[in-house]
Amino acid sequence: MEKRTGWGTEYPDDIRNGEWEYSAFTADQKLNDKANYKACFQCHKPHAKQDFVISLARLSGQAPDGPVPMKTSPNDVGIAGFAFGPSKLTIAPGQYVTWTNGDDSPHQITIAQSQERSAVLLKGQSRTQAFATAGVYEYSCGLQPSMKGTVEVK
User: Fold this and answer.
1) Which of 85, 114, 122, 140 has the smallest number of CB atoms closer than 10 Å to its CB?
2) DSSP strand pairing (148-153 vs 126-131)
3) How do the domains of the chain map onto residue ranges?
């Protein structure tokens, strides 16, 4: 991805996210015309007003070096290897869940039912949220939507 003044004007408003352009390349450094570029736009659309680079925290010296210690209580979810672990939790009404990012890549917790999004979590950062009402709450990463998990409150 790259941003330049005037880029992106040819894209419809429902996917355009600022002046960003996306490309993917094959191993022989040729443009991959089979890549799903619309998915890039859709994934980044919720963050259209927030320019960041995945490695910015590391480049600026703000990311922790080495592995991040994961919390191990029954209500903790670790984020590592672009996956939530555990991906399914069962808690009682009024209890909290804490997600901790152990990846170098940023992540964002998005609750499907409410579309509530956490702040972007850099490596070592956490998000805690209470679940007051019984039900099944599906969530995903707002930056990598293929990452999914479930909190069952009963």
Assistant:
1) 114
2) unpaired
3) 1-53, 64-153
**3 state DSSP class of 7:** coil
Q: What is the Cα 17 distance to its own chain's centre?
A: 16
Q: What's the token pair of residue 123?
A: 């490596």
Which stretch of DSSP H or E encloses residue 38? Answer: helix 37-44
Are the beta carbons of 68 and 76 closer than 8 angstroms? no
Q: Is the dihedral of CA 38, 40, 44, 46 positive or negative?
A: positive
- Spatial CB neighbours of 145, under 8 Å, sequence gap ≥ 6: 43
Picking from 34, 37, 35, the residue whose alpha carbon sits closest to that of residue 17 is: 37
Q: What is the pLDDT of residues 95-144, one digit of tens each?
A: 999 999 998 888 899 999 998 999 888 889 999 999 999 999 999 998 88
Tokens of 36: 């799903």
DSSP letters spanning 90-136: EE-TTEEEEEEE-SSS-B-EEETTT--BPPPB-TT-EEEEEE-S-EE
> For the structural domain made of 64-153, what CATH number should be given?
2.60.40.420
